[in-house]
Amino acid sequence: MNKLIEIIIQRLKSDSPELFQKMGRYAFWLGIIATILLMLPLGLPAWAISLITLFAGLTSGVAGTSQLTVKDTLNKNDAKSKISHQSKAGL
User: What DSSP designation does 16 have?
Assistant: First the structure.
């Protein structure tokens, strides 16, 4: 479990490709707009509120995932050895 946390921390600290940086920015701002629409007393129908809520969750997922996408600078051999070690151990 600690190795998984270390890998996630390493991925969060490393650089993301430009495409995913843009995706994260757009998703972040669209999520803010969706949240503002949910908080305003607009008198929207229930289906519209449900769609906006779903959209806000979707944009937060895209923004978070784009942060974990990194340039190809991580050592692939280390990741492969960790995966093969875990599969041999039955994990």
Answer: P
What tens digit of pLDDT does each residue of 3-61 get? 888 888 887 787 888 888 888 889 999 999 999 999 998 898 999 999 999 999 999 99
Task: Give which of 59, 63, 61 is closest to 51, Cα–Cα.
Answer: 59
Residue 59 has a CB neighbour count (10 Å cut-off) of 22
Residues 20 and 72: beta-carbon distance below 8 Å: no
User: Helix, strand or coil for residue 90?
Assistant: coil
CA gap 63, 5 in Å, rounded = 19
Give one word for 23, left, alpha or beta, with left for phi > 0 and alpha for psi -120 to 50: alpha
Distance separating alpha carbons of residues 90 and 6, to the nearest angstrom: 21
* Residue 63, token pair as written in the block: 């923004």
> H helices of 1-91, where?
2-13, 18-39, 46-68, 76-88
